[in-house]
Amino acid sequence: MTGTAEQMKGRAGRLARLMPSGPSTAARTPFVLLVVLLLAGGLISLLLLNSALNEGSFRLSKLERETTELTDEQQALQRDVDSYSEPDALERRARELGMVPGGSPAFLNPDGTVRGVPERATAEPSPAPAAPAPGTGAAGPSAQAPPSGSPSPASSASTPAPSATSTPSPSTSPPTSPGR
């Protein structure tokens, strides 16, 4: 067993020579501090990057919500415009303003002749309005439209009557031209 003790001494001696514990420990301290500072700086920068990404995510979700609200509002406004552009709504609004449908049009040719027969626009009887739904309490279109037998005062004031001196010229046929 004495051989093993000597072998242990020999191993310990070799280990002591390989890893000295004296002045070399002081030389490792700056390296360890540098590694620790690099790791701490990396962790802090990851934390800042993560919080910046979260802030951007919150802003993005807010903008998406605003976009959805504005899209809904735009669609509601488009529905309103479409409902006002329907022919029935246009006709009802025109009648409320005292307008009446025009008859056959008459055109002035470049040479001053009249093509067609000019007529005064008169109020025609409006089509039978649909009965309002029960419980709506609406007076219906008849309360808004002028009486069908006579034109409203607004329409007679806005539509001048044809004078007796402006009779159509004898040439009421359209001019012929080779290009048309």
UniProtKB/TrEMBL annotation:
Point to the regions of Low complexity compositional bias.
Answer: 133-170
User: What InterPro entries does the database record attribute to this sequence?
Assistant: FtsL/DivIC (IPR007060)
Regions of biased composition (Pro residues) lie at 171-180
Q: What is this protein called?
A: Septum formation initiator family protein
Region annotated Disordered, chain positions: 71-180
Species lineage: Bacteria, Bacillati, Actinomycetota, Actinomycetes, Kitasatosporales
Give the originating organism.
Streptomyces argenteolus
